[in-house]
Amino acid sequence: xxxxxxxxYTLITAIAVITLSLISSSEFQQRRFWYFEGMDKVIHVCMYxxxxxxxxxxxxxxxxxxxxxxxxxYNIIPLLLFGAMGxxxxxxxxxxxxxxxxxxxxxxxxxxxILGFYLQILFIRILKR
Length: 129
Fold this sequence. Notes:
This protein has helices at residues 2-5, 8-22, 39-63, 73-96, 103-128. By secondary structure, it is an all-alpha fold.
């Protein structure tokens, strides 16, 4: 149970990502000042970048080790699981939230995961100075 709570911020973020992804689009009030074409793609990248970077930062804080190699099994497995979560959410959206399932949203999710991985490496290097 302790291992689960070491990732408390990741869990909170994952719950927020799932909740925001499955809310009906009619519940979002679009403000024209902030809205621009493709804004939802930016939101997808940001949500999954936050999820990924928080996970790897929390793992680093608990073990004090990190690897910049994304292909290592202890790095790729969580990314694949988060990617599968993003894919499952995209498939569930038409059923649960009357929203469309878009391949570009899924690609933005994957992009966010990869950016989040490299962002946490940069953040750790800055903290070590």
